[in-house]
Amino acid sequence: MSQIKKVVLAYSGGLDTSIILKWLQDQYQCEIVTFTADIGQGEELEPARAKAQQFGIKEIYIEDLREEFVRDYVFPMFRANAIYEGEYLLGTSIARPLIAKHLIEIANKTGADTISHGATGKGNDQVRFELGAYALKPEIKIIAPWREWDLTSREKLLSYAENHGIPIEMKRGKQSPYSMDANLLHISYEGGVLEDPWQVPEEDMWRWTVSPERAPDQTTILELDFKQGDIVAIDGKPMTPAEVLTYLNKVAGANGIGRLDLVENRYVGMKSRGCYETPGGTVMLKAHRAIESLTLDREVAHLKDELMPRYASLIYNGYWWSPERVLLQQLIDSSQINVNGKVRVSLYKGNVTILGRASPNNSLFDTSIATFEDDGGAYNQKDAEGFIKLNALRMRIAARLSQK
User: Fold this and answer.
1) Residue from 66, 79, 96, 357 carrying the catalytic annotation
2) pLDDT at residue 171 above 70?
3) CB atoms within 10 A of CB 226
4) Strand order in the sheet with 230-234
5) Fewer Cβ neighbours under 10 Å: the N or C end of the chain?
6) Which fold has domain 179-296+338-358?
7) Percent share of the chain, pLDDT over 90
8) Active site includes 400?
9) Per annotation, catalytic residue among 176, 179, 293, 346
10) What is the pLDDT of residue 23?
């Protein structure tokens, strides 16, 4: 690491990454490139440029990645109906491979031999960033300051900032006691009172959703158009992937949809309690399963459900760029060719209800067979007798043996 010459730093412009920037300059005395990604976190990112310039940074990258994020990461993940440990929609996890990809691209463009990030040594993000980086550039060097320095408390960080002339911006009003991460798919909350799994989160913690009790008393009905597993229009209006998720976040959040309070198992070995808001993603998942119920063969649907926990774990644990995730994605995407049609949903006080689904050209639902009325001989009910007896044969043999 003594041979470090140039570092690309994932830089938000906040206090922590500003401290990291200065610390890298002091510890490694190397040239630094900053990279700031707009993935829909809802913050003004241009001030990061001015802050980087104050540190003498010459190469500054600020990139709008919202469309790429939803198109190439969120949508493929939702084609798999991915949920980690039965509940988590992987909002933080899925953003990390995108950031790692751009860190490496900028390193290649600028001739940097190293990347750096602000993830702590206790969390999953260090794994996600670094597995992605090594998969894309095996010889890359990585500096993770939280695993090296002794700035292990908020007080030490503030003292370092004061001693090195790093501006400490005091936000007006009440500061959030939580550690938060936001992008177009979700916002997460950790720390503070959430470190006690018995404590109820404060209502004013939530940023994107109203409580179901305070949501409107009337339903909101949406019609979602799917093409090969992705939503391409809402209420007949074509939208880009980022526009779809932005719109669903707004409407679903206003109806109290998408809150989650979860104790999860981190890849590094500990349990962690976090709260999440994923309003648009909650609607997307429910609607996608509805259109698949019409258009997917039974065994294909069941196989997808069997593979989904493995796929979700790969994303959670940072293996987006692994050959096994890529292979699974090819299988999943091939299953979506005929996942086309419309889904009508109702949003009401925290609930997403399917009101209807239709796929005129790809539906496997055959009314002439499924009907409870006269089917004109389309289905011979006598055939079920032999089917049942053959499937019961092994159990009948076992029962006779046990009776002896």
Assistant:
1) 96
2) no
3) 24
4) 237-238, 230-234, 220-227, 341-348, 351-358
5) C
6) Argininosuccinate synthetase, chain A, domain 2 (3.90.1260)
7) 86
8) no
9) 179
10) 95
